[in-house]
Amino acid sequence: MGNYFSPEYMAASFPVLLSYVGVSVFLTVISQSLALVLGSCIALVRVQRLRWISNLFAAYISFIRGTPFLVQLYLICFGLPRIIKALGAEDIRALPVVAFVVLVMVLHSAAYMSEIMRGSLESIDKGQLEACYSIGMTTAEAYRRILLPQAFRIAVPSLGNEVISALKSTSLVFNVGIVDMMSKAELMGSYSYRSLELYLDAGIIYVLLCFILHGLTELISNRHRLSGNAELVSEPATER
Amino acid sequence: MLALKDIYKSFGTHEVLKGISCTIPTGSVTVIIGPSGSGKTTLLRGINFLEPADKGTIILDDLKVNVEKAVSEEIHRLRQETAMVFQSYNLFANKTALENITEGLLIVKKMDKRQALEKARYYLNKVGLADREKAYPSQLSGGQQQRIGIARALALDPKVVLFDEPTSALDPELVGEVLDTMKKAAEEEHRTMLVVTHEMAFARDVADHVIFMEGGYIVEEGSPKEVLYSPREQRTKQFLARFRSTAL
Amino acid sequence: MEDSIVDLTYALEAFRYLLGFVPVTLALAVGSMFLGSLLGLAVMFVRWRNVPILGKLGTGYVVIGRALPTLIILYVVFFAFPVFLLYVNDGQVSERFNAIPPFLFALVGLTLHSGAYLAEVFRTAVQSVNKGQMEAALACGMTWSQGFRRIVLPQAAVLAVPLMGNQFLSLIKNTSIAFMITVLEMFGAANYLSSISERYIEIYLALAALYWLVGMFFETLFRKLEVRLAVYKGSKV
């Protein structure tokens, strides 16, 4: 390959890119934790079928699932500051882009996670809830002590998949100004003209991260082997 | 004539068939009864190699197959000359009732289309479902599906029809129609039938020969009157005691 | 400069402008779905029949293909090709290289991406077909390949349709990433437009609405198809 492709350059750039991996990991961890909480709340509301608020959430979920992540990213990161400025708050520049990116990722993943949680809640045998009522539990207690824990266990593989998806989507956020692995690769590529090597490096890092996340998911879902009537949802074959 | 000689089969360390030998004369109806785990289904499925046995010999008229050394031509011939009716019907889900029957005729027996359709319609009519020829299995009841399964098996003109607990998966009210169809097949067609079942009334009324299996052995065999009403073996008596209150 | 936060008439104009780029997006989606399906089928087959070297390669492809961000795959295809050409032609790259439309790179990239997912879809579908179907086929005297071709495969196809539908909807959204390798599809067009007018909110809302509508259209289509195919479904394993 000679001059056209340089494995040496690839090896040399790898640690450089690796040093930026913290940004992507940070974004993923923060946003997914918040998304899980938000998504679960939304799922609970939807399972109870609370009138207009359920419909509102349904519309929100439909929007998120029907539009590309990039569009949501640009809308929030370019559009939202405009709205906030127009509403009066002038020192918008004080808010770093990271906050907006986390917001997008939370809103994005929460929609998918709420569907996952809703599905797993609905897959639990009705008899469980009936048993809770029969011993005098309130609905809140039933969910908190019996249903939600079961739902989480069922949902672990799908939720894990969602986290992996979120990690992969962080590859796009350098477009709105985040300084991460991809922006560094772009920068280095622009003066070394060895973009292929750089993006191969980035690819390797993403694959390794995904393997780690997948391993963690397997670990968690194996620790909570389910007994009883609810079924473990296997790893979905498609992207969602 | 179908003969089985010294059939052995193990699943891992668990020996399920411990040297089974028996003969099924042509044109007869033989019923195998026994508790679950006795190996009767495994024996049946070993005949058409869906669950190949480990050792022994299978003789079907002029075809003699050494189970251990069976080659694919022999297995293929066994499958072509036998037909099976399954517990879960296993009708081809993507084919209509009629097509389920013509499928084997066209592909395996290599009949021409007109002949195949004629034959299929004949058997579909025989099992009383001529008006459902264009229906898909998903649109039919369990009993109807099983009757088509029987038609499918009969249309192939097999030397032996193997029935693997044909009514066990059916709702009770549908069992009768299937057993009647089987009885018709026995009486009108004089097919050699080997039936694994729990339906004692069928064994009593239709079978020429009854075999009682338990724990991988043939414990007792004989005519229905002998085995069901005056069994010699203690284990046979114990097994039949369960059915005392019902059919017998 | 702006009178209002959201100018609806401008948003409508933007919508009309972006509408013109739907064909590009759909061409990318349909093209890579089709090619990806062929690739996915081939990969599923070599893995299933444990073909010596190809089978292992196939498994590697499926695992890595699903762990890589779409953008990385597109970038690698985009940057690898010139490198490959340089290597093969020993330093000389023909003039015609510059004429290769980026659309083609995006097509290859998206094909590679969906192929990995589709291979898993097909594998799941084939495994979900009731084992009894093949047993019945064998018991009737058919060979394994007859049974597979005539009975199992058609049923697997029916099971695969909803999953393929999901993948296609995902693909439509993923085409937006192609703008990063200079393909002028819907998102790229919106990007261009917003660089001129700076009316981000209107443009990207219009874009979102457009994606959403296109998605809805295909989702309804797929659901109708699923209903019609339900007749051919057997019971689960």
Structure description:
- The complex is a heterotrimer of chains A (240), B (248) and C (237).
- With 240 residues, chain A is mainly alpha-helical.
- Chain A has a domain at 23-178: MetI-like (MetI-like fold).
- Chain A is 76% helix and 0% strand.
- Chain A contains 9 helices and no strands.
- Chain A is flat.
- In chain A, 38% of the residues are buried.
- In chain B, strand 1 (2-11) and strand 2 form a beta hairpin.
- In chain B, helix 3 (97-107) crosses helix 4 and helix 4 packs across helix 5.
- Helix content of chain B is 39%, strand content 25%.
- By secondary structure, chain B is α/β, with parallel strands linked by helices.
- Chain C has 237 residues and is mainly α.
- Chain C has 2 domains: 1-21 and 184-230; 23-172, MetI-like (MetI-like fold, Orthogonal Bundle), CATH 1.10.3720.10.
- Chain C has helices spanning 8-19, 22-48, 52-65, 70-88, 102-128, 131-139, 144-174, 186-197, 200-229.
- Chains in contact: A-C, B-C.
Oligomer: heterotrimer
Q: Major sheet of chain A: size, sense and barrel closure?
A: none
Would you tell me which CATH topology of the largest domain in chain C applies? MetI-like fold
**What is the ordering of alpha helices and beta strands of chain A?**
HHHHHHHHH
Question: What layout of secondary structure does this protein have?
Answer:
The complex is a heterotrimer of chains A (240), B (248) and C (237).
Chain A: H1 7-18, H2 21-48, H3 51-66, H4 69-86, H5 97-123, H6 126-134, H7 139-169, H8 181-192, H9 195-223
Helix pairs in contact in A: 1-9, 2-3, 2-5, 3-5, 4-5, 5-7, 6-7, 7-9, 8-9
Chain B: E1 2-11, E2 14-24, E3 29-33, H1 40-47, E4 55-60, E5 63-66, H2 72-81, E6 82-85, H3 97-107, H4 113-126, H5 142-155, E7 160-164, H6 172-189, E8 192-196, H7 200-206, E9 209-214, E10 217-222, H8 224-229, H9 234-241
Parallel strand pairs in B: 3-8, 3-9, 6-7, 7-8
Antiparallel strand pairs in B: 1-2, 1-4, 4-5, 9-10
Helix pairs in contact in B: 3-4, 3-5, 4-5, 5-6
Chain C: H1 8-19, H2 22-48, H3 52-65, H4 70-88, H5 102-128, H6 131-139, H7 144-174, H8 186-197, H9 200-229
Helix pairs in contact in C: 1-9, 2-3, 2-5, 2-7, 3-5, 4-5, 5-7, 6-7, 7-9, 8-9
